[in-house]
Structures are given as structure tokens and as C-alpha cells.
Write a structure and sequence with these properties.
- By secondary structure, the chain is of the alpha+beta class.
- It folds into two domains: about 70 residues; about 150 residues.
- It has a five-stranded mixed beta barrel.
- Helix 1 runs antiparallel to helix 4.
- The longest helix is centred in the first third of the chain and has 45 residues.
- The two termini are about 25 Å apart.
- The model has no long low-confidence stretch (mean pLDDT about 90).
């Protein structure tokens, strides 16, 4: 094969690879959007089902998965001294903390409650806003949910009231009670909670338009690569030969 033939083959392979990779990335973005829409539909469907009995709350991870996003009403006592503020959490595009507190259901048995969101002090990150935590037995309404999502962190696991992430196992050992393998996301319509926390929890599928936008960009790039190859390798040489 001549040098020109080798060059032509290399350009062809590179163009095919570029088109294939960018098109595959576009398809992946569409699948991510579809997954989020399906999950949001599942959440909406489960949340409309009748509230679960508190006695049926899962004790194992296998039991917890099918209970996610079911409504439930729990009674217990707040372990206020174990309240944790999860940093770098947003609500309505504002930075702040997710406030999470264990709810003691029975001696040695508790569930972690994502109580709501509170804004961060811009001048002093370590200054925590006062949160009203009732004493005695309380009634908490909410949806069963996975434990709080984890963000990337540079340092090792943190301690103290302000943390980047929270591990259920470590939290259980720290508090000295067994935490169920799930959490409760407190409802905004829980009239018993007069704590000033915001509970406009973000929807899973709220950002699907971003995935559609990325998919369009990848497909456009794939089409551009194909168009450039056709122009420079096929059409332009023919036009030059015709003009000559």
C-alpha cells in the first residue's frame, strides 16, 4: 500500500472511531435521562401508596430497597446531641446544610431522619443556625429514602457536627444505637415540625434536560466528524479533479 493509501486508511479509521465514540456518548446520555425519568415515576407512584405501618420498617438492606419512597409515620425521640449538618448541599440553588438527626424508635433502635435544609452562614462557615428539636416523643411524617447521598471528599471521614458525608455504620457506632439501613426524608407537610427547615427536596428527574443537551452536543459532534470526513476526503478531492 502506498503512503497516500496508508494516510487515507488512518483518516478513515480515526473518523469512524470518532463518530462511534461520540454517538455512543450521546446514546448514554439519553439512557441516563430515561433512567432518571423511570426512577422519578417510581418515586411518584410509591409516594402515592398508602402509608406503611411503622412495624414493617425494614431492618435489612434487602428489605429496605422495595420500601424506598413509601410514606410512613414514625414515633420516637430525637437524639438531638447526634445531629449532623451535611455541608455543600443545595436547595433552590442556594448553598447550605442538610440537617440529619437520628430518631430513637426503641432502646437501641433508631432511624436517621433527613429533617430538612438550612442556609449556611456566608461570613462564618462554622456558625450553625439554631434548630428547634422538640423533646419527648414526637410524630414524624416522611418518605422512606436511601441514606443521604455522598459527595466527593478530599480528606478522611470527618467527625463533629459539620461533615461532608455520613456513613450509617460509623454513625451507628458513634451514637451507640443500631440505625436502620435507610433514612426518612421528612415531609414538607409535617405540621408537627416547627423547626424552620426547608423541605423542598429536589426531584431525581429535574435535570433530564441537561442530559438531552449533552446528548445533542455529542450527536452534533458525531455528525460534524462525518461531515468533515466526507468533505475533505471525498467531495473536495473530486471537485479539485473536476476543476483541473
Amino acid at each position: 500500500m502506498t503512503r497516500q493509501g496508508i494516510r487515507w486508511l488512518i483518516v478513515l479509521v480515526a473518523a469512524l472511531a470518532g463518530c462511534a465514540v461520540t454517538a455512543r456518548l450521546g446514546i448514554w446520555q439519553l439512557s441516563r435521562a430515561a433512567e432518571k425519568i423511570a426512577l422519578q415515576n417510581q418515586i411518584d407512584g410509591r409516594s402515592r401508596e398508602p402509608a406503611m405501618a411503622a412495624s414493617a420498617l425494614a431492618r435489612t438492606e434487602a428489605e429496605a430497597l422495595p420500601q424506598h419512597y413509601r410514606a410512613i409515620v414514625l414515633h420516637g425521640r430525637w437524639l438531638a446531641q447526634a445531629t449532623v449538618y451535611l455541608d455543600n448541599r443545595q436547595m433552590n440553588a442556594q448553598p447550605g446544610f442538610y440537617v440529619v438527626t437520628p430518631l430513637l424508635l426503641a432502646p437501641g433502635d433508631a432511624v436517621l431522619v433527613q429533617r430538612g435544609w438550612v442556609p449556611r452562614n456566608i461570613q462564618d462557615r462554622t456558625r450553625l443556625p439554631p434548630i428547634v428539636t422538640p423533646e419527648g416523643e414526637v410524630e414524624v411524617h416522611g418518605l422512606i429514602a436511601p441514606p443521604p447521598s455522598k459527595l466527593f471528599e478530599f480528606a478522611a471521614a470527618e467527625s463533629g457536627p459539620i461533615r461532608q458525608n455520613l456513613d450509617l455504620g460509623a454513625m451507628s457506632r458513634e451514637v451507640g444505637v443500631r440505625l436502620r439501613p435507610l433514612s426518612l426524608r421528612q415531609s414538607d407537610d409535617d405540621v408537627s415540625a416547627h423547626d424552620g427547615l426547608l423541605r423542598e427536596w429536589p426531584q431525581v428527574a429535574v435535570d433530564v434536560s441537561r442530559h438531552y443537551g449533552y446528548a445533542f452536543q455529542w450527536f452534533a459532534m458525531s455528525a460534524l466528524i462525518a461531515g468533515l470526513y466526507v468533505w475533505f476526503q471525498l467531495l473536495r478531492p473530486r471537485l479539485r479533479r473536476a476543476a483541473a
